[in-house]
Design a protein that fits this description.
Elements lengths: L5 H4 L5 H36 L5 H26 L1 H21 L3 H18 L2 H8 L6 H28 L3 H6 L1 H15 L13 H24 L4 H23 L13 H15 L1 H14 L5 H5 L3 H18 L4 H21 L8 H18 L3 H6 L7 H31 L6 H34 L4
Helix pairs in contact: 2-6, 2-7, 2-9, 3-4, 3-5, 3-10, 3-19, 4-5, 4-9, 6-7, 7-15, 10-11, 10-19, 12-19, 12-20, 13-20, 15-17, 16-17, 16-20, 19-20
Length: 473
């Protein structure tokens, strides 16, 4: 893939150093994914032991909130103080928090550590993707992105299984802290082999921008999370949106005057970058529907067992473990393959979700297994195309924050989708939530919305991205 900043964007490392840094990044992604899925698997037993099950949803939101807030901030900080520093500092905090979660026995310190863990993970989460661009040749970046994507799938798969087995064996503490070992190995590999490239001269950190961005995201994201449960016209939800919007307006004014803005507003004047942000948002939109509502449909509409519903993701997981590496190698061969990969990443969601939107009590459960497996193909091509393409549009000094914004928009998509799907489901089931026909109507509306959004993404890929990306290599 062509980029006029190719030579200035690559950190010179020996072959051995590059391999070790890349291995460290893989360890970080596997460990982080392990933490996510292991805690999701055993959070209920942990809270039951503390007699604190009432905090279940709040803790889940704490994690996503910390990650969402710190993802764009962490990207900018890595531009200023260096990728290595960010990984070592935030990664160490993450490891300490994971170990701490296994040691504490009361809810307040557990909640504090959970919030800090999410914030620390958000701070360094984009850095492996940034380093993929900085330590490798541009043609190799999609392949490395595929490797990172496969690492996340592997970590999630292993994390939930290992945590469940250890918990059943009575080793709850070990079930919490075991990902910390791989995290520490990753930190050591990166710390020893990666030089710290940071901004020359005095570093001016936009503290006011960080504060108001945190307030804006907290207000808006908490309102989006609680809106479907409390009602969109609840005074607390309205106040949350108002606080978030006001803080966002103030944040924009601060960024216009800041020497080193947390989010450089000039990024949004880049048409190609904006289109890629939009495609990323669209590609993530359907996931909440598949993860949350497909199991519900299999259990409550098709009448299948909970174990069958729980195994829906297994074929998809296998696909996302293997295919991204090969998809990345294919994308790296030609710039023209980027829009094709995005087309696959959207069309292979739109078609299976459209098929699922005709669910009835007579639907064969095999349709769900096949459809969700196909979305794994889409995810494999998405993961190796959008971020490398977005990086190729960025100036060297904006690489960190620009990459982080892609990840942030992806996260934001899931939160927006959850709110939209909650409204769609509630509208159809409000009269009688237990009526199977109402449940069918609610689920089908969610799948249809997902299919439509993904088809819009497909049209953008073939009509807009194709023209932007088909340039002479």
């Amino acid at each position: 893939m062509s980029n006029n900043n190719t030579s200035s964007s690559v950190i010179a490392l020996s072959k051995s150093q590059r391999f070790k840094v890349q291995a460290g990044c893989v360890c970080l992604m596997i460990a982080t994914s392990m933490v996510w899925l292991s805690l999701a698997t055993i959070q209920a037993p942990i809270l039951q032991k503390m007699d604190a099950m009432k905090y279940f949803s709040l803790l889940t939101i704490f994690s996503s909130l910390g990650i969402s807030i710190m993802t764009p901030i962490g990207g900018k900080l890595s531009d200023l103080i260096g990728r290595k520093n960010i990984i070592i500092i935030a990664g160490s905090i993450s490891a300490i928090c994971v170990i701490g979660l296994g040691i504490v026995h009361s809810i307040i310190p557990f909640m504090i550590l959970r919030l800090l863990l999410g914030a620390a993970q958000g701070t360094f989460l984009s850095t492996p993707y940034i380093l993929a661009r900085e330590i490798n040749e541009p043609k190799d970046v999609p392949k490395i992105m595929g490797l990172l994507s496969s690492s996340i799938a592997l970590g999630g798969f292993m994390g939930s299984i290992i945590a469940g087995v250890l918990t059943d064996m009575g080793y709850l503490t070990l079930a919490i802290i075991f990902p910390a070992l791989l995290l520490i190995i990753g930190l050591a590999l990166i710390g020893i082999n990666l030089p710290n490239h940071k901004r020359e001269g005095k570093v001016d950190i936009d503290v006011k921008g960080i504060i108001f961005l945190a307030i804006a995201l907290s207000g808006i994201l908490l309102a989006l999370n609680y809106g479907p449960k409390m009602g969109w016209f609840d005074i607390k939800i309205i106040i949350g949106f108002i606080i978030g919007i006001i803080a966002l307006i103030i944040f924009i004014q601060i960024e216009k005057k800041a020497t080193e803005p947390i989010i450089p507003l000039h990024l949004f004047k880049n048409k190609k970058y904006n289109v890629l942000l939009l495609i990323g948002f669209i590609c993530y939109f359907y996931m909440n529907g598949v993860y949350a509502y497909a199991p519900l449909a299999v259990r409550d509409v098709l009448g299948q067992s909970t174990s069958t519903a729980g195994s829906l993701q297994l074929p998809r997981t296998i696909i996302t473990l293997i295919l991204p590496i090969f998809a990345g190698a294919w994308v790296g061969k030609s710039t023209k393959n980027i829009w094709k990969a995005m087309g696959i990443g959207t069309l292979f969601v739109a078609l299976p979700l459209l098929a699922m939107s005709f669910t009835s009590q007579n639907t064969n459960v095999l349709l769900y297994f096949v459809a969700i497996t196909i979305t794994g193909i889409a995810e494999s091509f998405r993961s190796v195309s959008i971020t490398p393409a977005a990086q190729s549009t960025l100036e060297r000094q904006d690489l960190g924050v620009g990459t982080s914004l892609v990840n942030f928009v992806n996260t934001l998509s899931g939160l927006v989708a959850a709110a939209v799907f909650g409204v769609a489901y509630d509208i159809n089931t409000k009269a009688n939530p237990a009526d199977v026909n109402n449940i069918i109507a609610g689920i089908n509306s969610i799948f249809l919305i997902s299919a439509i959004v993904s088809f819009v993404g497909f049209m953008i890929a073939i009509l807009v991205v194709r023209k932007l990306m088909e340039v002479k290599e």
